[in-house]
Design brief:
Layout lengths: L3 E3 L14 E3 L5 E11 L2 E8 L8 H5 L3 H8 L3 E10 L3 E4 L7 E4 L2 E12 L11 E4 L2 E5 L4 E6 L5 E8 L25 E6 L4 E4 L4 E6 L5 E4 L4
Antiparallel strand pairs: 1-8, 2-6, 3-4, 3-5, 4-8, 5-12, 6-10, 7-8, 9-15, 10-14, 11-12, 11-13, 12-16, 15-16
Length: 225
Amino acid sequence: MSQTTTPAGAPGPSLGSDAPVKDGLRNARYGEVLLLRSEHGTFSAEVWNTLGMNDCPQAAWDSLDPSAIAEERGALLAILNGPRFWVLDSIRSNIREEAPETIFGTLGMFRAAVIDFGTEPPVQGPYLERSIVRETVFGFAKGSEVYELERLDGTIYVMQAYSRIVDPSLTIDDLPHLGHRIGLPDGWTYQARTLTEDLGLLSTDGVAIVIQDDLQNTYQRVDRH
């Protein structure tokens, strides 16, 4: 099933070099609340994110009640997506321009995206590609360690964030050896490597392709430009 995400306040067809850059993000903690809605037979989800507003403190996160949030916000379902930690070093994006803000419990969040699922409700599953409409450049600095999945056909996905949803004890120090823990599809491999030059992952024609592994760590596909 194809899933398309449109960032709130998304810029035009190309992301200018003057777009704001947020750096120092490696191992920065964040959380998201997804609000699933249905209108005229189609499903969508608002994605609210703590990035830049707070570091998603555990006590505040644990106090969130998804059922109460869904009822309060008039949503079919509220999904708590986190805590998560960035593995990248920087993000260049106009996503915060005019993005709405709100508070869930005591956590301030901004609306980072609206996901359109079409006529079918969303189905989660590992190693399934999802299309996200966004104008961002995810930056990985020279000397940083990156974690990659590679398919048999040579397609590579670079981890952008790790998750504590499935394994609450997972840390960045566990990532180099994660390949022994995840259930990779036949022919796939996992590797850690140190960058010898800067890496920028950008969307192709405004679309990024992402997947998750079975621990809900998230990766972006490397498209050749």
